[in-house]
Amino acid sequence: MPHQMPDPVLILDFGSQLTQNIARRVRELEIYSEIVPHDVKLSEIKKRRPRALILSGGPASVFEHDAPALDPDVLKLGVPVLGICYGMQIMAHALGGSVEAAAVREYGVTGFHPEKGMGTPWKAFPDSSPVLMSHGDTILKLPSGFRVTGSTRTTPFAAMESQKSRLYGVQFHPEVTQTVQGMEFLRSFLSEIAQIRPNWTLGGYIDRHVEEIAATVGSDHLICALSGGIDSTVTALLCHRAVGKRFQAIFVDNGLMRAGESEQIVRDLKTLSLPLLPVDAGKIFLDRLKGVRDPERKRKIIGKTFIDIFRKEATRRKKKSGFLAQGTLYPDVIESVSHKGPSSVIKSHHNVGGLPKNLPFTLVEPLRELFKDEVRRLGKELGLPDSFIRKQPFPGPGLAIRVIGAVTPERLRIVRDADRIVREELDGTPLASLLWQYFAVLLPIQSVGVMGDQRTYENVVAIRTVMSQDGMTADVGEIPYTVMSRLSHRIISEVRGVNRVVYDISPKPPSTIEWE
């Protein structure tokens, strides 16, 4: 019998880069949620029988000619609705309120002041509670039947409600960690206003997607792109559970791996009893990347080359497969394409925006709606050893996007040797458990130096350390000066061709974690 999903909280996506964060926070409360386009038909919403609606933020202004619109009838379904940032503005606009460009745009963390005597869900916020603002427009007049429930120093209408209609709006983002009481606010809205009890677990997610994979593949065979990272490994376990002997994992060594990594990956994967086929394709990738400097071209070339190899290996099999599984996560999707709303493209990930248009496979991507921390929890549910679960993310294009500019065997050697030193110094230390990623990047510049009383003109390496929960946002992972000094000394001394080391102190946003 098919695994029955509970009635969802539907999130209408107006294009925010943080839309999936909302879904993630709702799921952390063990409440099932789904993301749908902002212009989903009213009949489809009714069909899904939502317990509550959340209107996401977005990059547009409600008064722009082509701004994403909201059907006012969505607000008359009788279920609680929460509008966030643009979602609050489009709610006010659709109901007759007034929205205009703000005299003072508000970006960053500020203090939120709830009106005195406010009850649920505003009681979650003490006075001056930190909230994250990111808006250039503001509400000047509330719709009829609404009252203001909170403000900030520059935004008089930072929150609003219509208790009678069960409509609520906040100008800030409760779905991010910078809004300290954001989770408590969402909990209050969903449990006390919408009266939803916990109804979703990762165990249920496993059951649902194993069934979906089996139904999708049918009696066909399924191959899986297995890199050895947590994402593709969890994908492989789900797919193997779904189709059994009709499953084949393929590990492609693209020649862009870190020192000793390919051999270690094969050893580790064999412990999981997955049918594994290793393929040495380093020369093919390096030949196709020769002379390519543009990061988008790199990603697309790498994506196409992976597909070419999978197609070749699939045709070699006695029983051909029309299905390819890969460990695509939501951060990959939302940075590569406008997934379900009018969001901006950040960069093409090799397994999403980097794929060729005429794909010879039907993709199976059971983790496409999840963040990295959720995948790690899923891996634990599936019985993966801690060595897999704790493994830090490594990009699919490998060191090709940590060599800024052209990729050559010599430049790969330099970044590989520098990265090995970074890992040797940080692996197994208390600092490593606090960091999301730490790695070296080879910059496309050279600098003058003095080594052995002689002038040098050699390469510059950057060290990148970040802290994050999901990869969508990241803070600088501070490391002690003594560690930085030791890294610099070792890299300059041991890596031939490097005479300068710099330290990247850029958060995401405005930067991304990887340099390309």
Task: Report a brief summary of the structure.
This protein has 14 helices and 18 strands. It has 516 residues and is of the alpha/beta class.
Describe the structure.
It is a single chain. With 516 residues, the chain is an alpha/beta fold. The chain folds into 3 domains: 9-193, Class I glutamine amidotransferase (GATase) domain (Rossmann fold), CATH 3.40.50.880; 202-389, Rossmann fold; 402-504, GMP Synthetase, Chain A, domain 3. Helix content is 31%, strand content 24%. It has 14 helices and 18 strands. The strands form 3 sheets. It has a 9-stranded mixed beta sheet, sandwiched between helices. The chain has a 5-stranded parallel beta sheet with strand order 12-11-10-13-14, with helices on both faces. The protein is globular. Residues 337-353 have low confidence and may be disordered.
Task: Give me the secondary-structure topology.
Layout: E1 9-13, H1 19-28, E2 33-37, H2 42-48, E3 52-55, E4 81-84, H3 86-94, E5 98-114, E6 129-141, E7 147-151, E8 159-162, E9 167-170, H4 182-193, H5 202-217, E10 221-225, H6 230-243, E11 247-253, H7 261-270, E12 276-280, H8 282-289, H9 295-316, E13 321-325, H10 330-336, E14 362-364, H11 372-381, H12 386-389, H13 409-426, E15 437-451, E16 454-467, E17 475-476, H14 481-494, E18 498-504
Parallel strand pairs: 1-2, 1-3, 3-4, 4-9, 10-11, 10-13, 11-12, 13-14, 16-18
Antiparallel strand pairs: 5-6, 5-7, 7-8, 8-9, 15-16, 16-17
Helix pairs in contact: 5-6, 6-11, 8-9, 13-14
